[in-house]
Write a structure and sequence with these properties.
14 helices
């Protein structure tokens, strides 16, 4: 029986595919109007994606329907805790303990507030991601269980096997994130790695057979290793090269296996200087860049600004690596204090002039110190 959109989204959240879960939920919003579980699930997904404004909005919608759900109270409590409002956070945690005396998450959060709930420590826990231990629990990632079982089984097999089978393919999928065996290079692929006739084509990257093969195999390996940013660089290299049409089609198909990261899950975040050296190679990659915001304004439902990469207000030196236009395409408007440094999670794009642009996703600023 086909799963409902809500069940599918919950399964994706357990697999830590938060962005895909939100895509499913947003596509079924009309179906689940005034549904408590829908709003709660969306709020939890947004919370884990660092979209705190959206999380708060969904939690408030859920609270209009039901006020005593434990996961809802945990979600709202941690939003207050993140902002340093320990008094309101404690109020929610006490409500949880009153309804569910054995709740470990609430107890641990209250112990943290009692023993370490000062401003500096909260900032450190927010910055490091430790604060996530107080988020509503989403269960064990089933892929983690599969990987453990797979590793144990592989160890047994390796211990028992004394002869290694000879395979005609150089790449053998080694992870359990996805089954990418369909992308392994066939004998025909290995004979036709590049376009035979490049006449009339203006390739950005002219690669050798060995370079095409390495880029393809590296892309597969990076995807299996949860290094989507690194994989996308290799995919871009193939798509803009003299690789054969079959290899370029395969690279394009691999794009559907990449997932959107959060600040905590982002790997291989490239620096501004790396991206500026060859923007086309990094199109679609996610970056987390520090800097300062200028020229901010609302354009309909979009929030636009310039990110002065590397500039830290109030710290003296005006060391700007570059100025990059950023657009956050939908409400709510991100809460940014332009007088303080900011960290942005954003996707790299290229404008018509070949210059870097960013599609904003999340913003992080340290809590303002008392008196600021």
């Amino acid at each position: 029986m086909k799963k409902s959109a809500l069940e599918t989204a919950k399964a994706l959240i357990r697999r830590r595919a938060f962005s895909r879960a939100m895509n499913v939920l947003e596509g079924a919003s009309d179906t689940y109007r005034d549904n408590f579980s829908y709003y709660l699930t969306a709020g939890i997904a947004c919370l884990y994606m660092d979209l705190f404004g959206d999380a708060n909005r969904y939690f408030n919608q859920a609270r209009k329907i039901r006020m005593t759900d434990t996961d809802l109270l945990l979600g709202q409590a941690v939003l207050y805790l993140r902002r340093g409002d320990t008094e309101r956070a404690l109020h929610y945690y006490l409500d949880i303990i009153g309804n569910e005396p054995g709740n470990k998450t609430a107890k641990n959060a209250m112990d943290f507030i009692r023993d370490h709930g000062d401003y500096e420590t909260i900032c450190e826990w927010v910055s490091s991601g430790k604060i996530r231990r107080f988020y509503p629990p989403i269960g064990i990632n089933p892929y983690t269980v599969v990987r453990i079982v797979f590793s144990l089984a592989a160890g047994i097999v390796i211990g028992l096997c004394v002869v290694r089978a000879v395979v005609p393919r150089r790449f053998v999928p080694s992870g359990s994130r996805y089954d990418l065996s369909q992308f392994a290079l066939s004998y025909d692929d290995l004979k036709n790695l590049r376009e035979k006739d490049g006449t009339g084509h203006d390739y950005r990257y002219v690669l050798t057979d060995a370079e095409v093969q390495k880029a393809h195999e590296d892309a597969l390996r990076y995807i299996l290793d949860y290094r989507d940013n690194a994989a996308l660089v290799e995919i871009n290299r193939i798509l803009n090269s003299n690789a054969s049409a079959n290899l370029r089609r395969a690279a394009n198909d691999l794009l559907s296996y990449l997932t959107e990261p959060t600040f905590d899950t982002l790997t291989d975040s490239f620096s501004y200087r790396q991206v500026a050296s060859d923007p086309m190679l990094y199109v679609g990659c996610w970056v987390a860049w520090d800097g300062s915001v200028s020229n901010a304004f609302l354009d309909g439902t979009s929030y636009r600004c310039d990110l002065l990469v590397g500039y830290k207000p109030g710290e003296g030196a005006y060391d700007v690596e570059g100025k990059v236009p950023v657009v956050f395409p939908a409400a709510p408007e991100p809460e940014i204090d332009s007088s303080r440094s900011v960290r942005m999670l954003a996707k790299v794009g290229v404008d018509n002039g070949g210059q870097i642009s960013l599609l904003g996703r999340s913003v992080y600023q340290p809590l303002a110190k008392p008196g600021e």
